[in-house]
Design goal:
This protein is mainly α. 86% of the residues lie in helices and 0% in strands.
Length: 259
């Protein structure tokens, strides 16, 4: 196993595992499309980073941070649905990103290229993925309670606005990291599809979160392996494998319901 392949594999394992885990909470909050939209919001940041010779994930996160702050502010001030606010900022960012991203690097920005992960990228991806996992594990019960009943959360003295902001920041961070793995166009699928398959298969909350993370990791590992064998881009292969896990989960659930 050469060093570059190992870096790609270890980076993919950590990022995809946390992305799947985070996706389980996103589905519960009915925010399935937010990860996808944030991936597109990152595109102008990717374009600027490429133009200035900066780290792509850093450029993406800066724009994602600005997007999250704007969404959070407008959500408080206007009381519009989060999905609507994200959608408006999403189309603006997508248009701007296409304009400023250099054409030779545009495809890589859209579908990623994990084979170009450096030692520093891998180290930061591992550390930040573990950080996101830690933060989410701490706020998960509060976010879950607020998703079920905001009135009950308020009665329990939970600051919903604060925890929603922290939650959006963790999404932004994992999206920024995931861009190296599957690109801005496909990152939403890496977050949502494993969680969707897990929701069909799991019988309790613990199973739901664990299976979500496991399917994310398994899809990423197999995608990288098939990419190495076939020479095809790893990003699309990872997402296709995610979908292949989702389809049998529906069949198994139908059979279980019949019983």
């Amino acid at each position: 196993m050469d060093n570059q392949f190992f870096l790609s594999l270890i980076t993919g394992i950590f990022v995809s595992g946390v992305a799947g885990y985070l996706g389980s909470l996103m589905l519960t909050k009915r925010m399935a499309l937010v990860g996808d939209a944030l991936g597109h919001i990152a595109l102008p940041g990717i374009g600027l980073a490429l133009l200035l010779g900066l780290n792509v994930s850093f450029g993406a996160f800066v724009f994602l941070l600005l997007g999250v702050l704007l969404i959070w502010f407008l959500e408080i001030k206007t009381y519009l649905p989060t999905e609507a606010l994200v959608g408006i900022i999403f189309v603006f960012s997508l248009a701007l990103g296409f304009l400023i991203t250099p054409q030779p690097e545009l495809l890589e920005a859209l579908i990623g290229d994990i084979s170009k992960v450096s030692d520093i990228d891998a180290v930061f991806s591992i550390i930040l993925s573990l950080f996101v996992l830690y933060v989410i594990s701490k706020i998960y019960p509060k976010i879950m309670l607020a998703s079920i009943s905001e009135d009950l959360a308020v009665a329990s003295h939970i600051n919903i606005k604060k925890y929603n902001f922290i939650y959006l920041l963790t999404i932004a961070l994992i999206v920024a990291l995931g861009i190296k793995v599957v690109g801005s166009l496909l990152i939403g699928a890496l977050v949502i599809v494993p969680a969707t398959a897990s929701r069909v298969l799991s019988r309790n909350l613990r199973q739901y979160t664990l299976i979500s993370g496991f399917l994310g990791v398994l899809s990423c590992v197999l995608g990288i392996l098939f990419s190495r064998i076939t020479g095809l881009a790893a990003g699309p292969l990872i997402i296709l494998i995610c979908i292949l896990f989702f389809i049998p989960s529906l069949i198994l659930k139908k059979e279980d319901n019949r019983v």
